[in-house]
Please model this.
Amino acid sequence: MRSYLKRCWLFMLVVGFVTAGYFLMSTSKVVRSDLTKIQEKVLLLTTPDEPPPLSHTQISHRFQRRLNILRHACRRYSKSKMFHQITARPREVTVEAHWPVMNVSMKYCPIMKTGSTTWRRVISDVRKRLKTLGITQKHPHSDKEHNQSEETEDVRFLFVREPYSRLLSAYVDKLFSPNTMYWRATGQYIIQNFRSNPSEPSLRCGHDVTFPEFVRYVIHSQKTLQHRDGHFVPSHDHCDVCNVSYNYIGHLETLGEDMAFLLNVTQLPGIHGPQSFDGLTIAGNAGWVLRRMKEKIRTCMTMYEACLRLWKKWHIRGIISKTEPLPVTAEEAETISLEDFVHLAIQALNRSGRKEDRRRQKTEALTEAFASIPYEERLQVEDMLTLDFALFGFEATPESVFPSVPAQRHDNYSYFDLSQAYNGVAADHTR
Model:
């Protein structure tokens, strides 16, 4: 068993490095001239400390428990009017990945903010790998001869996520962190409809939506079924979970283990999921803000605020320790290159300690965000997410959202206050 686990981790580490190179090369055509140096920084990352992996049998049993929860809840709620499927929307087109290998065909339904981008990258990598091996991909049900001679096993799966964390992540990724597309598509709508006396810049840009305003918008859109977006609606409104016979339910919280297990089930030759995503996330996020959207961002805020929002996003996600402040001044932020910014972020990541410690920042950020929501509205969010709790086995009233006693901060740091980087004190890092 030890030998098997050792080989698995070695394969995952090697493919993680390969995936890192591939992702950085595909982030954006605009930033390709800088990718060689950025890639070197990312590939020098040490693997974060992780708990010992579960055995294949333990993970299999965990999948079975999740499936039992889903099937039991579906028997109870499958006819509920709480389901409002939105699969007709352009962003909700179900993507199925078919590759008959060793009589196995994978079918994956992506749900936004549950690791779908990572899975799409892996699926793309798998397709390239199969092409390299000379394996022709065919839809398993389109080859009559194949179906007559061999029985194809379907691996049908989706991934979900703790519902409150998914809601906060959607806000941080699409509205708090610089994202000019969502500022226009959703931010302006929220400010027009859920803010009293908005300013002209806010109406024009949609760039400064608060979390309470976002929550009021999500509650309203779910009740009225208007102005809905796949990133913000509950997971149960995706993928027709009670009418499709999924046989694996993955959780984002255990993405690495679940992904490795599913890829192993398919018996795909030499394919394993990447082990660490932090460096890749930094490079991808920075590429969008400092290149793809930079000029549009400038019309709404300074690049210093944009960089600060991005840096705080990495604090909120537990990628960089909150004790690592934004290491650039307002003047430097206006001219810093993508490569230099990523270099500073990678340095901060390497100083940030164990990933296990940084995970606590996610809970702290969640607690701070929902503490800004009136209790009555938190109850409405709970009601909106009822089916997610029942279908996927998540707790409806976690302490982080419904604390038994008011949460107390152990420092003065705020994940969402843009007037500070850390305790209001700028740090001097060697650059």
Summary: Residues 2-26 form the longest helix (25 residues). The first strand starts at residue 104 and ends at 109. Residues 97 and 107 are 5 Å apart (CA to CA).
